[in-house]
Amino acid sequence: MELPEDVAPKARTVAELDDALTHCRACPRLVEWREEAARVKRASFADWDYWARPVTGFGPADARVLVVGLAPAAHGGNRTGRMFTGDRSGDVLVRALHDVGLASQATSVTRDDGLELLGVRFTAPVHCAPPANKPTPQERDTCRPWLERELRLMRPTLGSVVVLGAFGWQALLPALAAAGWSVPRPRPVFGHGVRVDLAPAASAPAALRALPVFGCYHVSQQNTFTGRLTPAMLRGVLAEAAHAAGLPTG
């Protein structure tokens, strides 16, 4: 079995990377869980043919803003085959993107619902649904080469990153360092509304630009139902990231 560290660096485009990623079986626990969720199903989705494979990033390969989550939900992205699609987290995020002019519609229901992200791409540090939404450190690290390669391939256009939650923040910083940006020591601490501007590393290509990275509470039900993350708070971070990347907002 080929590992992400062997396969991901060979991808010459984001499309090639996405295609290779969907065949990954590197983490036995995650493979078992994503396929078990597809067999057992949730009663309300009993008639669904679950995707039950790694879920790729979604959005244009030349996006200016990258939104980094945690991992697909067992009955969301793992069911629909598209990140932030078919669950409440996706509903909240896509509505906020639509509100600020970065998505073509306010809903994200199925892979063929017509949603287009406008200058924005979704990705995650772990591409398979984990039990209890908690990947292990080993699973995070095994999956990291996909994220590193995605960042490298997006370097010509990438203007900012929004990280949803502390897990994504901690997983992203090493990937950014591997992709050519200088991450300070000690590493910046996650917080909602935090902005860190990463300079290109000394070894990076001369054309590489500084990259603003924004922290935002995750769009989980726990955060949105309790008011820890409100729609206004989410819109504020997304609009700031869009402005930093030179994208117009509505």
From TrEMBL:
The keyword ATP-binding does not apply. InterPro entries: UDG_Type-4/5, UdgB-like, Uracil-DNA_glycosylase-like, Uracil-DNA_glycosylase-like_sf. The keyword Hydrolase applies. Residues 56-238 form the Uracil-DNA glycosylase-like domain. Keywords: 4Fe-4S, DNA damage, DNA repair, Hydrolase, Iron, Iron-sulfur, Metal-binding. Belongs to the uracil-DNA glycosylase (UDG) superfamily. Type 5 (UDGb) family. This is Type-5 uracil-DNA glycosylase. It comes from Streptodolium elevatio.
